[in-house]
Write a structure and sequence with these properties.
- This protein has helices at residues 61-69, 170-186, 194-200, 226-235, 250-282, and strands spanning 15-21, 28-33, 36-46, 77-78, 108-116, 122-130, 143-144, 150-154, 157-164, 202-205, 218-223, 242-244.
- It has five helices and twelve strands.
- The protein has 283 residues and is α+β, with helices and mostly antiparallel strands.
- The chain has one domain: Multidrug-efflux Transporter 1 Regulator Bmrr, Chain A (Alpha-Beta Barrel), CATH 3.20.80.10.
């Protein structure tokens, strides 16, 4: 019930908020993330107006990643495997581990990989699930049993994030990313072009599909280089360094409360209208 109104119940990577640009046309935060690990699937999508992916093996990148962490039953991952060499040659599995269920985290990340498809009518994309903080080295991360799933190490990085709600599509995400880029140019950040923004932005999603669009937390992320970060910090100094990332977003709880109150008020209003109509009919 809470997820319908935007309550976030899964963990997200911690981050530091270096500055906030609030009183501008397109608001954003400058965030710093530490090292993270992610499970990813690369796939192609149609550019000719069609829906879905071009690769029959990757009809649902989200489903593939969800199966890896065990959302739909037995996780599609395996434990450490070694091969012992003897005479005669024998292959055996030592210290095999059972599939390991991995907690769902947020955000789910989608990005373009700037690689055109083989037929020229498709674009290669990547979807990533951020792994929980306890998986802080490759040796701790269960090996995927599906060859389409890859484990990636994401180094510490700094970038800007714009948050928005509502439905999201590829067209919407690109439009929002373009607005973010225009705001950065207006703020004087050097090296920001429409082409570079549209080629490098990531969409971050935090809510399940059944969350009402108004309560969804969508974010556009754009990584910045050292000079761009230094410029923003010098031009817009922040006295307070905030910390973000939590197991349950306060904004989500606030939205949930607001949604419940809205339903109560709506039901009361409807009841009042019906009572008023019945009174008029009696007159």
């Amino acid at each position: 019930m809470g997820s319908v109104f935007g309550k976030e119940s899964v963990k997200e990577p911690p981050f530091d908020i270096l500055l906030q640009r609030s009183n501008v046309k397109t608001t954003y935060e400058l965030r710093q993330y530490g090292e993270r690990f992610a499970a990813s699937v690369t796939y192609t999508v149609n550019n000719n107006g069609g829906d879905g992916t071009n690769n029959d093996a990757v009809k649902s990148p989200f489903g593939i990643l969800a199966k890896y962490i065990g959302v739909f039953g037995t996780p599609q991952n395996e434990g450490s495997t070694s091969i012992a060499m003897t005479a005669p040659v024998i292959m055996e599995q030592e210290d095999a581990k059972k599939p390991e269920t991995i907690a769902m985290t947020a955000p789910v990340v989608m990005e373009n990989t700037n690689t055109p498809g083989e037929d020229g009518n498709a674009t290669t994309k990547k979807m990533m699930f951020m792994l929980p903080a306890e998986y802080d080295s490759m040796s701790k991360i269960p090996k995927p049993s599906n060859p389409l799933v890859h484990i990636e190490e994401i180094p510490s990085e700094v970038g800007v994030v714009h948050r928005y709600n509502g439905k999201y599509t590829d067209t919407t995400n690109r439009a929002v990313a373009k607005e973010l880029g225009e705001q950065l140019v207006h703020d004087g950040v050097v090296g920001i072009t429409e082409e570079s923004v549209l080629d490098n932005f990531q969409f971050w999603g935090y809510n399940p599909p059944f969350t009402l669009p108004y309560y969804r937390r969508n974010e556009i992320w754009l990584k910045l280089n050292v000079d761009q970060v230094s410029y923003l910090k010098e031009k817009y100094p922040s006295s307070n360094r905030l910390v973000g990332g939590s197991t349950s977003s306060m904004n989500g709880r606030s939205m949930f409360t607001l949604g419940v109150c809205g339903l109560v008020v709506g039901a009361y209003a409807i009841g009042f209208i019906f009572r008023s109509r019945s009174q008029y009919r009696r007159i």
